[in-house]
Known about the structure:
The chain has helices spanning 87-101, 105-117, 123-139, 143-154, 161-177, 181-194, 200-212, 216-234, 239-251, 255-268, 272-284, 288-300, 307-319, 323-335, 343-361, 363-372, 377-388, 392-405, 411-424, 428-438, 445-473; strands at 2-6, 40-44, 66-68, 80-82. With 475 residues, it is mainly α. Among the domains are: 23-31 and 286-464, Serine Threonine Protein Phosphatase 5, Tetratricopeptide repeat, CATH 1.25.40; 72-178, Serine Threonine Protein Phosphatase 5, Tetratricopeptide repeat, CATH 1.25.40.10. It has a two-stranded antiparallel ribbon with strand order 1-2. Helix 12 runs parallel beside helix 21 (445-473). Mean pLDDT is 82; it is low at 1-75.
Amino acid sequence: MNTRLLLNAEPRLTQNQTNYAGMKMFPNQGLNRTAPSLRLRRATLSLALISSLAFIPATLLSSASQAAETQSTHGQRQTVKTPALREKIYKVLTEAQAKAEENQPAEALKILDGLKKSSGLNSYEAAMMWKFYAYIYYSQDNHQQAIQSYENLLRQEALPRALELEALYSAGQLYFAQENYKKSIDYLDRWFALTDTPTPQAYIMLGQAYYQLNQMNKALPPIRSAIAMAEQSEGRAKESWYLLLRALYFEQNNYQAGADVLEKLIQYYPKKEYWVQLSSAYGELKQESKQLSTLEIAYRQGLLDRESEWLTLAQLMIFNDIPYKAAKVLEKGIDKGIIRPEKDNLKLLSYAWSTAQEAKKALPVLVQAAATSQSGEIDIQLGSTYYQLDEWNQAVRYLREGISKGDLKHKGNAYLLLGLSLFNMNEFEDARYAFKQAATFDGAKTSANQWLNYVDNEIQRRDLLAQTLKSMDTP
């Protein structure tokens, strides 16, 4: 079935990032020529929604009369008395079941056809007969006849509540499999009205049906309910459920909600495409520091393999006043054969290097100003400049001095930059502490948490390597 999913795995820069003063030297060059914008595309969303129907256990074919309590969360239904399943009918159904279990569906259908022609079946006996029909037709992939059997079952009076619920849900599933989403919604709505125990699987199927009908506002509540229930019971939802919710939000241009979903996808199902898409979402939200941080983490993990991704990363670094690192990225990309050494890319590299040299010239002035300033702002600026130049020791020195002096406008960002500098020195534990401090500030929280996860992985990798080497040295 066709579903609208979204986002090619390409980063994007926003318009304000394409027109900053330094790039006016390239009047005909957009900041990112090769990366298309966030956009939707149709794809196939594989959801395991149709579960197999179980054989009817013989214990369900009881000859005892049954009473069904039909109270639901949506109202009080009258208690009904279900007729008895007589012994002779029980024996016929048992015979049909035996043929079905022996993989003789044609023989089973003949037995049921004979029962159907007999007169005097009460409503419960007829309902059980139609349940057998539904199962056998389903086992033959005859969905239309299975649906018809469930509809005949539901026409019977005084149904046990459990049997009615099973028939409604199964009919909803089968209509969904046939891509008859309106009918599927009708039966699922009846099921929800009757059940006291809705399941996340039912909510996700209902949401998917609305999604296929382009009724996005109606699709959102059940999908959110499904995910919330799964997260509460299992800690996380299925990856495909998050993908469906992400698709809905981006179809509505709700980039903040879409970014929130992508953050969960990165946490539970880390993949390159989610890092790149999250970076693009932050770009749409004009959260440039998060956009850069997210893409840089993907770069450090070796996930970026397209020229457009490397160029976007370099351009973001220039936009965020880190031209030296941008130049290093561009040079590395050219050396690895990912970035083509063509005219526009070489111009960008030249611009990055020239801007980096200007930053270096500012160092003596900043050092002198920091020495006499009571505020830590100039020290932070000085530490940031050293960070741009990959001079990590000096960066750490002045960033710590600035944080110690205080009176900072963006203390969270200062801790974030300190953590990055320490990380580049392989001082992972100190870096982790700095990122934890940064995470206490709203403006830096998201990026800091992403780096915390990355640092934790690096610490685990380092410790595992050390243990491996130690075991190799042990005689």
